[in-house]
Amino acid sequence: MKRSERLVAMTNFFLEHPRELFSLPYFVNRYEAAKSSISEDIDIIDGMFQKMGIGELTTVSGAAGGVQYIPDLSKENANHCMEELIELLKDPARILPGGYVYMSDILGHPKHIREIGKVFAAAFHGLDIDYVVTVATKGIPLAYAVAQVLGVPVVIIRRDPKVTEGSTVSINYVSGSSRKIQTMVLAKRSIEEGSNVLIVDDFMKAGGTIKGMMNLMQEFNATVKGIGVLAEAEDEDEDRKVDDYISLLKFVEVDEVKQTIQVSKGNYFI
Amino acid sequence: MKRSERLVAMTNFFLEHPRELFSLPYFVNRYEAAKSSISEDIDIIDGMFQKMGIGELTTVSGAAGGVQYIPDLSKENANHCMEELIELLKDPARILPGGYVYMSDILGHPKHIREIGKVFAAAFHGLDIDYVVTVATKGIPLAYAVAQVLGVPVVIIRRDPKVTEGSTVSINYVSGSSRKIQTMVLAKRSIEEGSNVLIVDDFMKAGGTIKGMMNLMQEFNATVKGIGVLAEAEDEDEDRKVDDYISLLKFVEVDEVKQTIQVSKGNYFI
After folding, report:
1. Given a cut of 80, is residue B151 above it in pLDDT?
2. How sure is the predictor about A21, in pLDDT bands with cuts at 50, 70 and 90?
3. Fewer beta carbons within 10 angstroms: which end of chain A, N or C?
4. What is the CATH number of the domain that holds A61?
Protein backbone atom coordinates (compact mmCIF):
# COMPACT_ATOMS: atom_id res chain seq x y z
CA MET A 1 0.00 0.00 0.00
CA LYS A 2 1.27 3.46 -0.89
CA ARG A 3 1.64 6.18 1.73
CA SER A 4 -1.18 8.16 0.13
CA GLU A 5 -3.56 5.20 0.44
CA ARG A 6 -2.39 4.43 3.95
CA LEU A 7 -3.10 8.00 5.04
CA VAL A 8 -6.70 7.71 3.82
CA ALA A 9 -7.15 4.35 5.57
CA MET A 10 -5.51 5.43 8.83
CA THR A 11 -7.38 8.75 8.97
CA ASN A 12 -10.64 6.83 8.67
CA PHE A 13 -9.44 4.28 11.25
CA PHE A 14 -8.59 6.87 13.90
CA LEU A 15 -11.82 8.79 13.34
CA GLU A 16 -13.76 5.54 13.79
CA HIS A 17 -11.94 4.60 17.00
CA PRO A 18 -11.77 7.64 19.28
CA ARG A 19 -9.92 7.15 22.58
CA GLU A 20 -8.95 3.57 21.77
CA LEU A 21 -5.29 2.69 22.17
CA PHE A 22 -3.53 0.77 19.38
CA SER A 23 0.10 -0.37 19.36
CA LEU A 24 2.43 0.50 16.50
CA PRO A 25 2.87 -3.20 15.59
CA TYR A 26 -0.93 -3.34 15.13
CA PHE A 27 -0.67 -0.81 12.30
CA VAL A 28 2.53 -2.39 10.93
CA ASN A 29 0.59 -5.60 10.60
CA ARG A 30 -2.67 -4.09 9.40
CA TYR A 31 -1.14 -1.97 6.65
CA GLU A 32 1.94 -4.11 5.92
CA ALA A 33 4.34 -1.23 6.27
CA ALA A 34 7.58 -0.58 8.15
CA LYS A 35 7.38 0.82 11.67
CA SER A 36 9.22 3.95 10.57
CA SER A 37 6.67 4.59 7.80
CA ILE A 38 3.76 4.14 10.21
CA SER A 39 5.40 6.58 12.63
CA GLU A 40 5.71 9.17 9.90
CA ASP A 41 2.07 8.63 8.88
CA ILE A 42 1.00 9.18 12.47
CA ASP A 43 2.99 12.43 12.62
CA ILE A 44 1.31 13.69 9.44
CA ILE A 45 -2.19 12.79 10.66
CA ASP A 46 -1.53 14.23 14.11
CA GLY A 47 -0.30 17.49 12.58
CA MET A 48 -3.33 17.84 10.33
CA PHE A 49 -5.84 16.94 13.06
CA GLN A 50 -4.36 19.68 15.25
CA LYS A 51 -4.35 22.17 12.36
CA MET A 52 -8.02 21.38 11.66
CA GLY A 53 -8.87 21.78 15.37
CA ILE A 54 -10.39 18.29 15.69
CA GLY A 55 -8.01 16.86 18.30
CA GLU A 56 -4.72 15.02 18.23
CA LEU A 57 -3.03 11.62 18.15
CA THR A 58 -1.26 11.03 21.45
CA THR A 59 1.43 8.45 22.04
CA VAL A 60 1.54 6.39 25.21
CA SER A 61 4.98 4.88 25.72
CA GLY A 62 5.90 1.60 27.39
CA ALA A 63 5.03 -2.06 26.77
CA ALA A 64 1.25 -1.46 26.94
CA GLY A 65 1.61 1.75 24.97
CA GLY A 66 0.52 2.87 21.55
CA VAL A 67 -1.30 5.65 19.79
CA GLN A 68 -4.81 6.97 20.33
CA TYR A 69 -6.97 9.65 18.80
CA ILE A 70 -8.20 12.13 21.40
CA PRO A 71 -10.93 14.18 19.71
CA ASP A 72 -11.25 17.82 20.59
CA LEU A 73 -12.86 20.87 19.11
CA SER A 74 -11.15 24.25 19.11
CA LYS A 75 -13.06 27.07 20.81
CA GLU A 76 -13.10 28.77 17.42
CA ASN A 77 -14.92 25.81 15.85
CA ALA A 78 -17.26 25.59 18.87
CA ASN A 79 -18.06 29.30 18.62
CA HIS A 80 -18.79 29.00 14.94
CA CYS A 81 -21.09 26.05 15.56
CA MET A 82 -23.08 27.92 18.25
CA GLU A 83 -23.42 31.05 16.12
CA GLU A 84 -25.03 28.94 13.40
CA LEU A 85 -27.46 27.46 15.92
CA ILE A 86 -28.33 30.89 17.34
CA GLU A 87 -29.24 32.11 13.85
CA LEU A 88 -31.59 29.14 13.45
CA LEU A 89 -33.13 29.55 16.90
CA LYS A 90 -33.93 33.26 16.56
CA ASP A 91 -36.68 32.52 14.02
CA PRO A 92 -39.97 33.69 15.64
CA ALA A 93 -41.83 30.87 13.85
CA ARG A 94 -40.32 28.67 16.56
CA ILE A 95 -42.37 30.25 19.34
CA LEU A 96 -44.98 27.83 20.71
CA PRO A 97 -47.95 28.63 22.96
CA GLY A 98 -46.69 29.11 26.50
CA GLY A 99 -43.44 30.69 25.36
CA TYR A 100 -41.74 27.40 24.52
CA VAL A 101 -39.36 27.18 21.61
CA TYR A 102 -39.58 24.46 18.96
CA MET A 103 -36.17 22.77 18.71
CA SER A 104 -37.07 19.25 17.54
CA ASP A 105 -35.89 19.88 13.99
CA ILE A 106 -32.45 20.92 15.22
CA LEU A 107 -32.28 17.99 17.63
CA GLY A 108 -33.38 15.80 14.73
CA HIS A 109 -30.60 16.73 12.36
CA PRO A 110 -27.53 14.49 12.65
CA LYS A 111 -25.31 17.28 11.37
CA HIS A 112 -26.22 19.69 14.20
CA ILE A 113 -26.30 16.90 16.75
CA ARG A 114 -22.82 15.70 15.84
CA GLU A 115 -21.41 19.21 16.10
CA ILE A 116 -23.08 19.82 19.45
CA GLY A 117 -21.77 16.44 20.62
CA LYS A 118 -18.25 17.49 19.70
CA VAL A 119 -18.56 20.77 21.59
CA PHE A 120 -19.71 18.91 24.72
CA ALA A 121 -17.01 16.29 24.35
CA ALA A 122 -14.42 19.08 24.14
CA ALA A 123 -15.94 20.79 27.19
CA PHE A 124 -15.65 17.61 29.28
CA HIS A 125 -12.49 16.53 27.55
CA GLY A 126 -10.21 15.93 30.54
CA LEU A 127 -12.68 14.01 32.71
CA ASP A 128 -12.53 10.27 33.24
CA ILE A 129 -16.04 9.24 32.19
CA ASP A 130 -17.50 5.70 32.10
CA TYR A 131 -21.03 6.51 30.90
CA VAL A 132 -23.01 9.36 29.41
CA VAL A 133 -26.39 9.48 31.17
CA THR A 134 -29.55 11.14 29.87
CA VAL A 135 -33.31 10.91 30.29
CA ALA A 136 -35.81 10.02 27.55
CA THR A 137 -36.59 11.48 25.02
CA LYS A 138 -34.97 14.61 23.66
CA GLY A 139 -31.60 14.26 25.34
CA ILE A 140 -30.93 10.88 23.72
CA PRO A 141 -29.43 12.02 20.40
CA LEU A 142 -27.20 14.51 22.21
CA ALA A 143 -26.03 11.86 24.66
CA TYR A 144 -25.08 9.53 21.79
CA ALA A 145 -23.23 12.25 19.96
CA VAL A 146 -21.16 13.02 23.06
CA ALA A 147 -20.64 9.33 23.86
CA GLN A 148 -19.45 8.64 20.34
CA VAL A 149 -16.65 11.18 20.70
CA LEU A 150 -15.76 10.06 24.23
CA GLY A 151 -15.89 6.39 23.22
CA VAL A 152 -18.17 5.33 26.11
CA PRO A 153 -21.71 3.87 26.33
CA VAL A 154 -24.96 5.78 26.84
CA VAL A 155 -27.40 5.01 29.62
CA ILE A 156 -30.99 6.13 29.17
CA ILE A 157 -33.20 6.86 32.16
CA ARG A 158 -36.88 6.29 31.42
CA ARG A 159 -40.08 7.83 32.72
CA ASP A 160 -41.80 4.44 32.98
CA PRO A 161 -40.44 0.92 33.57
CA LYS A 162 -40.39 -1.48 30.64
CA VAL A 163 -40.42 -5.26 30.73
CA THR A 164 -37.43 -5.46 28.39
CA GLU A 165 -35.19 -3.75 30.94
CA GLY A 166 -35.33 -6.30 33.75
CA SER A 167 -35.30 -5.13 37.37
CA THR A 168 -35.04 -1.39 37.86
CA VAL A 169 -34.30 1.28 40.43
CA SER A 170 -36.74 4.16 40.49
CA ILE A 171 -36.96 7.52 42.24
CA ASN A 172 -39.60 10.20 42.52
CA TYR A 173 -38.67 13.82 42.15
CA VAL A 174 -40.30 17.22 41.91
CA SER A 175 -40.11 18.84 38.50
CA GLY A 176 -38.76 22.35 39.08
CA SER A 177 -40.96 24.30 36.71
CA SER A 178 -44.24 22.36 36.85
CA ARG A 179 -43.81 21.39 40.54
CA LYS A 180 -45.35 17.99 39.79
CA ILE A 181 -44.08 14.72 41.21
CA GLN A 182 -42.48 12.65 38.50
CA THR A 183 -40.75 9.30 38.30
CA MET A 184 -37.43 8.18 36.84
CA VAL A 185 -36.52 4.57 36.24
CA LEU A 186 -33.22 2.92 35.38
CA ALA A 187 -32.40 -0.75 34.78
CA LYS A 188 -30.29 -2.15 37.60
CA ARG A 189 -27.77 -3.69 35.29
CA SER A 190 -27.21 -0.59 33.21
CA ILE A 191 -24.46 0.99 35.35
CA GLU A 192 -21.63 -0.69 37.25
CA GLU A 193 -21.22 0.34 40.88
CA GLY A 194 -18.79 3.19 41.45
CA SER A 195 -18.77 4.52 37.89
CA ASN A 196 -18.09 8.07 36.75
CA VAL A 197 -20.88 9.58 34.70
CA LEU A 198 -21.54 12.65 32.59
CA ILE A 199 -25.16 13.90 32.58
CA VAL A 200 -26.39 15.40 29.31
CA ASP A 201 -29.80 16.91 28.49
CA ASP A 202 -31.30 19.19 25.88
CA PHE A 203 -32.87 21.82 28.12
CA MET A 204 -32.79 23.08 31.69
CA LYS A 205 -35.07 25.55 33.40
CA ALA A 206 -35.32 25.14 37.16
CA GLY A 207 -33.11 22.06 37.02
CA GLY A 208 -35.49 19.59 38.67
CA THR A 209 -34.94 16.89 36.07
CA ILE A 210 -31.15 17.19 36.26
CA LYS A 211 -31.37 17.09 40.06
CA GLY A 212 -33.50 13.93 39.76
CA MET A 213 -30.85 12.31 37.57
CA MET A 214 -28.19 13.23 40.13
CA ASN A 215 -30.22 11.61 42.90
CA LEU A 216 -30.77 8.49 40.82
CA MET A 217 -27.02 8.27 40.19
CA GLN A 218 -26.46 8.21 43.96
CA GLU A 219 -28.56 5.05 44.10
CA PHE A 220 -26.00 3.46 41.77
CA ASN A 221 -23.05 4.85 43.78
CA ALA A 222 -22.04 6.68 40.62
CA THR A 223 -20.11 9.94 40.69
CA VAL A 224 -21.49 12.76 38.53
CA LYS A 225 -18.33 14.21 36.97
CA GLY A 226 -20.06 16.77 34.80
CA ILE A 227 -23.43 18.14 33.67
CA GLY A 228 -24.07 19.56 30.22
CA VAL A 229 -27.24 21.09 28.80
CA LEU A 230 -27.66 22.33 25.26
CA ALA A 231 -29.87 25.25 26.29
CA GLU A 232 -30.81 26.84 29.59
CA ALA A 233 -33.64 29.23 30.21
CA GLU A 234 -33.64 32.18 32.56
CA ASP A 235 -35.30 30.93 35.75
CA GLU A 236 -37.50 33.74 37.09
CA ASP A 237 -37.78 32.23 40.56
CA GLU A 238 -34.03 31.88 40.79
CA ASP A 239 -34.34 28.76 42.86
CA ARG A 240 -32.33 26.68 40.45
CA LYS A 241 -31.62 23.24 41.84
CA VAL A 242 -28.31 22.72 40.05
CA ASP A 243 -25.25 24.97 40.24
CA ASP A 244 -22.36 23.37 38.52
CA TYR A 245 -23.23 22.78 34.87
CA ILE A 246 -22.18 23.77 31.40
CA SER A 247 -24.70 25.29 28.99
CA LEU A 248 -23.98 25.95 25.32
CA LEU A 249 -26.94 28.25 24.71
CA LYS A 250 -29.14 30.49 26.83
CA PHE A 251 -32.68 31.66 26.09
CA VAL A 252 -32.55 35.19 27.50
CA GLU A 253 -36.13 36.07 26.62
CA VAL A 254 -38.95 34.55 24.64
CA ASP A 255 -41.73 37.07 24.08
CA GLU A 256 -44.98 35.57 22.82
CA VAL A 257 -46.62 38.95 22.27
CA LYS A 258 -43.79 40.66 20.42
CA GLN A 259 -42.89 37.34 18.77
CA THR A 260 -39.19 37.62 19.52
CA ILE A 261 -36.63 35.13 20.75
CA GLN A 262 -33.45 36.34 22.38
CA VAL A 263 -30.84 33.63 22.54
CA SER A 264 -27.16 33.92 23.39
CA LYS A 265 -24.21 31.61 23.98
CA GLY A 266 -24.29 29.68 27.23
CA ASN A 267 -21.93 29.77 30.21
CA TYR A 268 -19.34 27.55 28.46
CA PHE A 269 -18.35 30.55 26.35
CA ILE A 270 -18.11 33.07 29.20
CA MET B 1 -0.51 22.19 1.82
CA LYS B 2 1.22 18.96 0.85
CA ARG B 3 -0.70 16.13 -0.81
CA SER B 4 -0.24 13.97 2.28
CA GLU B 5 -1.84 16.62 4.49
CA ARG B 6 -4.60 17.29 1.98
CA LEU B 7 -5.49 13.60 1.90
CA VAL B 8 -5.96 13.57 5.67
CA ALA B 9 -8.08 16.74 5.55
CA MET B 10 -10.19 15.63 2.59
CA THR B 11 -10.78 12.12 3.97
CA ASN B 12 -12.11 13.71 7.16
CA PHE B 13 -14.17 16.19 5.14
CA PHE B 14 -15.93 13.53 3.05
CA LEU B 15 -16.60 11.32 6.07
CA GLU B 16 -18.17 14.32 7.83
CA HIS B 17 -20.39 15.23 4.85
CA PRO B 18 -22.04 12.06 3.52
CA ARG B 19 -24.26 12.53 0.46
CA GLU B 20 -23.50 16.24 0.17
CA LEU B 21 -22.38 17.48 -3.22
CA PHE B 22 -19.32 19.76 -3.46
CA SER B 23 -17.88 21.28 -6.63
CA LEU B 24 -14.20 20.86 -7.55
CA PRO B 25 -13.62 24.63 -7.29
CA TYR B 26 -14.83 24.40 -3.68
CA PHE B 27 -11.90 22.10 -2.86
CA VAL B 28 -9.48 24.09 -5.04
CA ASN B 29 -10.35 27.10 -2.94
CA ARG B 30 -10.51 25.34 0.42
CA TYR B 31 -7.15 23.59 0.09
CA GLU B 32 -5.42 26.10 -2.21
CA ALA B 33 -4.40 23.44 -4.72
CA ALA B 34 -4.64 23.01 -8.48
CA LYS B 35 -7.75 21.37 -9.93
CA SER B 36 -5.63 18.52 -11.31
CA SER B 37 -4.17 17.81 -7.85
CA ILE B 38 -7.61 17.79 -6.25
CA SER B 39 -8.83 15.38 -8.95
CA GLU B 40 -5.97 13.02 -8.19
CA ASP B 41 -6.67 13.24 -4.44
CA ILE B 42 -10.30 12.35 -5.09
CA ASP B 43 -9.24 9.33 -7.15
CA ILE B 44 -6.97 8.11 -4.36
CA ILE B 45 -9.66 8.55 -1.67
CA ASP B 46 -12.32 6.96 -3.86
CA GLY B 47 -10.09 3.95 -4.52
CA MET B 48 -9.33 3.43 -0.85
CA PHE B 49 -12.94 3.89 0.30
CA GLN B 50 -13.98 1.18 -2.17
CA LYS B 51 -11.13 -1.08 -1.11
CA MET B 52 -12.15 -0.67 2.55
CA GLY B 53 -15.80 -1.39 1.67
CA ILE B 54 -17.11 1.89 3.13
CA GLY B 55 -18.58 3.38 -0.05
CA GLU B 56 -17.30 5.57 -2.85
CA LEU B 57 -16.88 9.11 -4.11
CA THR B 58 -19.15 9.67 -7.09
CA THR B 59 -18.81 12.48 -9.59
CA VAL B 60 -21.82 14.33 -10.93
CA SER B 61 -20.97 16.18 -14.15
CA GLY B 62 -22.42 19.43 -15.48
CA ALA B 63 -22.63 22.97 -14.18
CA ALA B 64 -24.31 21.98 -10.91
CA GLY B 65 -22.04 18.95 -10.60
CA GLY B 66 -19.34 17.96 -8.18
CA VAL B 67 -18.23 15.12 -5.96
CA GLN B 68 -20.09 13.41 -3.14
CA TYR B 69 -19.34 10.62 -0.72
CA ILE B 70 -21.93 7.85 -0.90
CA PRO B 71 -21.37 5.65 2.14
CA ASP B 72 -21.92 1.94 1.80
CA LEU B 73 -20.96 -1.16 3.70
CA SER B 74 -19.87 -4.33 1.95
CA LYS B 75 -21.92 -7.45 2.73
CA GLU B 76 -18.70 -8.91 4.12
CA ASN B 77 -18.38 -6.07 6.64
CA ALA B 78 -22.11 -6.31 7.43
CA ASN B 79 -21.84 -10.05 8.02
CA HIS B 80 -18.86 -9.59 10.29
CA CYS B 81 -20.72 -6.94 12.30
CA MET B 82 -23.78 -9.19 12.79
CA GLU B 83 -21.68 -12.18 13.81
CA GLU B 84 -20.13 -10.09 16.58
CA LEU B 85 -23.60 -9.04 17.76
CA ILE B 86 -24.88 -12.62 17.71
CA GLU B 87 -21.99 -13.70 19.96
CA LEU B 88 -22.94 -10.98 22.44
CA LEU B 89 -26.67 -11.77 22.30
CA LYS B 90 -26.31 -15.52 22.91
CA ASP B 91 -25.29 -14.90 26.52
CA PRO B 92 -28.01 -16.54 28.73
CA ALA B 93 -27.48 -13.81 31.36
CA ARG B 94 -29.51 -11.62 28.97
CA ILE B 95 -32.72 -13.61 29.51
CA LEU B 96 -35.32 -11.56 31.40
CA PRO B 97 -38.54 -12.82 33.04
CA GLY B 98 -41.15 -13.39 30.32
CA GLY B 99 -38.58 -14.57 27.80
CA TYR B 100 -37.40 -11.06 26.87
CA VAL B 101 -33.79 -10.40 26.00
CA TYR B 102 -31.80 -7.53 27.53
CA MET B 103 -30.30 -5.50 24.69
CA SER B 104 -30.00 -2.01 26.22
CA ASP B 105 -26.24 -2.28 26.68
CA ILE B 106 -25.78 -3.04 22.98
CA LEU B 107 -28.18 -0.27 21.98
CA GLY B 108 -26.26 1.98 24.38
CA HIS B 109 -22.86 1.51 22.82
CA PRO B 110 -22.05 4.04 20.08
CA LYS B 111 -19.67 1.57 18.46
CA HIS B 112 -22.35 -1.08 17.91
CA ILE B 113 -24.98 1.50 17.05
CA ARG B 114 -22.81 3.12 14.41
CA GLU B 115 -22.06 -0.23 12.79
CA ILE B 116 -25.73 -1.24 12.80
CA GLY B 117 -26.57 2.17 11.35
CA LYS B 118 -24.15 1.56 8.51
CA VAL B 119 -25.63 -1.83 7.74
CA PHE B 120 -29.13 -0.32 7.56
CA ALA B 121 -27.93 2.59 5.46
CA ALA B 122 -26.36 0.11 3.03
CA ALA B 123 -29.55 -1.96 2.96
CA PHE B 124 -31.64 1.08 2.01
CA HIS B 125 -28.86 2.63 -0.01
CA GLY B 126 -30.65 3.24 -3.31
CA LEU B 127 -33.84 4.75 -1.89
CA ASP B 128 -34.65 8.44 -2.01
CA ILE B 129 -35.33 9.16 1.67
CA ASP B 130 -36.22 12.52 3.25
CA TYR B 131 -36.56 11.43 6.90
CA VAL B 132 -35.77 8.49 9.13
CA VAL B 133 -38.76 7.89 11.41
CA THR B 134 -38.75 5.98 14.70
CA VAL B 135 -40.76 5.80 17.91
CA ALA B 136 -39.44 6.62 21.39
CA THR B 137 -37.35 5.27 23.09
CA LYS B 138 -35.13 2.41 22.01
CA GLY B 139 -35.23 2.99 18.28
CA ILE B 140 -33.84 6.52 18.61
CA PRO B 141 -30.10 5.77 18.62
CA LEU B 142 -30.51 3.40 15.66
CA ALA B 143 -32.50 5.99 13.72
CA TYR B 144 -29.77 8.60 14.26
CA ALA B 145 -27.04 6.23 13.21
CA VAL B 146 -28.88 5.48 9.96
CA ALA B 147 -29.77 9.14 9.39
CA GLN B 148 -26.17 10.18 9.89
CA VAL B 149 -25.04 7.93 7.06
CA LEU B 150 -27.95 8.90 4.80
CA GLY B 151 -27.48 12.60 5.61
CA VAL B 152 -31.16 13.21 6.48
CA PRO B 153 -33.01 14.27 9.67
CA VAL B 154 -34.65 12.01 12.24
CA VAL B 155 -38.28 12.33 13.28
CA ILE B 156 -39.27 10.87 16.63
CA ILE B 157 -42.82 9.71 17.27
CA ARG B 158 -43.79 9.95 20.94
CA ARG B 159 -46.17 8.00 23.14
CA ASP B 160 -47.48 11.16 24.79
CA PRO B 161 -47.81 14.75 23.56
CA LYS B 162 -45.39 17.34 24.93
CA VAL B 163 -45.89 21.08 25.17
CA THR B 164 -42.53 21.75 23.51
CA GLU B 165 -43.70 20.11 20.28
CA GLY B 166 -46.56 22.45 19.35
CA SER B 167 -49.68 21.06 17.69
CA THR B 168 -49.62 17.34 17.01
CA VAL B 169 -51.33 14.58 15.06
CA SER B 170 -52.12 11.46 17.03
CA ILE B 171 -53.43 7.99 16.23
CA ASN B 172 -54.53 5.04 18.31
CA TYR B 173 -53.42 1.56 17.39
CA VAL B 174 -53.54 -1.97 18.73
CA SER B 175 -50.22 -3.34 19.93
CA GLY B 176 -49.81 -6.70 18.22
CA SER B 177 -48.41 -8.73 21.10
CA SER B 178 -50.15 -7.16 24.12
CA ARG B 179 -53.37 -6.39 22.19
CA LYS B 180 -53.72 -3.13 24.13
CA ILE B 181 -54.79 0.16 22.58
CA GLN B 182 -51.88 2.56 22.46
CA THR B 183 -51.31 6.09 21.22
CA MET B 184 -48.70 7.64 18.95
CA VAL B 185 -48.16 11.37 18.64
CA LEU B 186 -46.15 13.41 16.15
CA ALA B 187 -45.66 17.17 15.92
CA LYS B 188 -47.44 18.60 12.89
CA ARG B 189 -44.46 20.56 11.71
CA SER B 190 -42.02 17.68 11.93
CA ILE B 191 -42.62 16.25 8.42
CA GLU B 192 -43.31 18.08 5.18
CA GLU B 193 -46.30 16.86 3.15
CA GLY B 194 -45.46 14.24 0.54
CA SER B 195 -42.11 13.18 1.98
CA ASN B 196 -40.42 9.80 1.62
CA VAL B 197 -39.60 8.12 4.91
CA LEU B 198 -37.65 5.16 6.22
CA ILE B 199 -39.04 3.54 9.38
CA VAL B 200 -36.47 2.13 11.81
CA ASP B 201 -37.01 0.34 15.14
CA ASP B 202 -35.08 -1.90 17.46
CA PHE B 203 -37.46 -4.83 17.73
CA MET B 204 -40.51 -6.31 16.03
CA LYS B 205 -42.75 -9.11 17.17
CA ALA B 206 -46.31 -9.00 15.79
CA GLY B 207 -45.55 -5.71 14.07
CA GLY B 208 -48.31 -3.61 15.67
CA THR B 209 -46.02 -0.70 16.47
CA ILE B 210 -44.55 -0.61 12.97
CA LYS B 211 -48.07 -0.78 11.53
CA GLY B 212 -49.05 2.12 13.78
CA MET B 213 -46.13 4.18 12.45
CA MET B 214 -47.18 3.38 8.89
CA ASN B 215 -50.72 4.58 9.62
CA LEU B 216 -49.41 7.76 11.22
CA MET B 217 -47.28 8.42 8.14
CA GLN B 218 -50.45 8.29 6.01
CA GLU B 219 -51.79 11.20 8.05
CA PHE B 220 -48.78 13.20 6.85
CA ASN B 221 -49.18 12.00 3.24
CA ALA B 222 -45.73 10.49 3.59
CA THR B 223 -44.62 7.45 1.60
CA VAL B 224 -42.96 4.67 3.59
CA LYS B 225 -40.06 3.67 1.33
CA GLY B 226 -38.58 1.08 3.64
CA ILE B 227 -38.84 -0.56 7.07
CA GLY B 228 -35.85 -1.80 9.04
CA VAL B 229 -35.77 -3.55 12.43
CA LEU B 230 -32.64 -4.59 14.26
CA ALA B 231 -34.18 -7.80 15.60
CA GLU B 232 -37.37 -9.69 14.90
CA ALA B 233 -38.88 -12.42 17.04
CA GLU B 234 -40.66 -15.50 15.82
CA ASP B 235 -44.38 -14.64 16.02
CA GLU B 236 -46.24 -17.75 17.22
CA ASP B 237 -49.62 -16.54 16.07
CA GLU B 238 -48.28 -15.80 12.61
CA ASP B 239 -50.62 -12.88 12.22
CA ARG B 240 -47.82 -10.44 11.57
CA LYS B 241 -49.12 -7.04 10.57
CA VAL B 242 -46.16 -6.07 8.40
CA ASP B 243 -44.79 -7.98 5.41
CA ASP B 244 -42.19 -5.96 3.67
CA TYR B 245 -39.34 -5.20 6.06
CA ILE B 246 -35.66 -5.86 6.56
CA SER B 247 -34.41 -7.46 9.77
CA LEU B 248 -30.74 -7.78 10.67
CA LEU B 249 -31.19 -10.35 13.44
CA LYS B 250 -33.78 -12.94 14.36
CA PHE B 251 -34.51 -14.43 17.78
CA VAL B 252 -35.34 -18.01 16.81
CA GLU B 253 -35.97 -19.22 20.36
CA VAL B 254 -35.56 -17.86 23.86
CA ASP B 255 -35.98 -20.63 26.43
CA GLU B 256 -36.38 -19.39 29.99
CA VAL B 257 -36.25 -22.89 31.48
CA LYS B 258 -33.20 -24.19 29.64
CA GLN B 259 -31.70 -20.66 29.74
CA THR B 260 -30.74 -20.61 26.08
CA ILE B 261 -31.01 -17.95 23.41
CA GLN B 262 -31.00 -18.93 19.75
CA VAL B 263 -30.32 -15.97 17.54
CA SER B 264 -29.50 -15.92 13.84
CA LYS B 265 -29.03 -13.36 11.09
CA GLY B 266 -32.20 -11.69 9.86
CA ASN B 267 -33.87 -11.69 6.45
CA TYR B 268 -31.42 -9.11 5.04
CA PHE B 269 -28.81 -11.85 4.85
CA ILE B 270 -31.01 -14.51 3.23
Report:
1. yes
2. very high
3. C
4. 1.10.10.10
Taking only residues 138 to 167 of chain A, the set having a beta carbon closer than 8 angstroms to any beta carbon of chain B reads 138, 140-141, 144, 147-148, 151-156, 158, 163-166
Q: Please give the helix or strand (H or E) that residue B214 lies within, else none.
A: helix B208-219
Q: Which residues of chain B does A165 touch, with a Cβ-Cβ cutoff of 8 Å?
A: 96, 102, 104
User: Which residues span the domain enclosing A131?
Assistant: 75-269
Confidence (pTM): 0.94
Kindly write down the DSSP assignment for every residue of A211-257, as one continuous string: HHHHHHHHHTT-EEEEEEEEEEE--TT---S--S-EEEEEEEEEETT
For residue B187, give the nearest of A104, A148, A189 by CB distance.
A104
Asked if residue A132 has pLDDT above 70, the reply is yes
Number of structural domains chain B divides into: 2
Residue-averaged pLDDT of chain A: 94
Q: For A141, which of B114, B144, B152 is closest by C-beta distance?
A: B144
- CB-facing half-sphere around the CA of B147: CA atoms within 13 A: 31
B77 three-state secondary structure: helix
Q: Cβ contact (<8 Å) for B3 and A4?
A: yes
User: What are the tens digits of pLDDT across the range B109-144?
Assistant: 999 999 999 999 999 988 999 999 999 999 999 999
Name residues whose C-beta falls within 8 Å of residue A65's C-beta, 6 or more positions apart in sequence.
A21, A23, A59
Q: Is pLDDT of B174 > 90?
A: no
What's the per-residue H, E or C state across A154-178?
EEEEECCCCHHHCCEEEEEEECCCC
Which residues 59-98 of B have a C-beta within 8 angstroms of A?
A: 96-98
Are B151 and B251 contained in the same domain?
A: yes
Q: Say yes or no to pLDDT of B236 above 90.
A: no
Chain B nearest CA to A14, separation (Å): 10
pLDDT in tens, A165-176: 889 999 999 876
Assess whether pLDDT exceeds 90 at residue B260: yes
Whole-angstrom Cα distance, residue A8 to residue B34?
20
**Per-residue pLDDT reduced to its tens digit, A89-121:** 999 999 999 888 999 999 999 999 999 999 999
Strands ordered across the beta sheet of B154-157: B154-157, B131-135, B196-204, B223-233, B246-255, B260-265
Residues A48 and A131 occupy one common structural domain: no
Q: How high is the pLDDT of residue B177?
A: 66
B19 and B81 assigned to the same domain: no
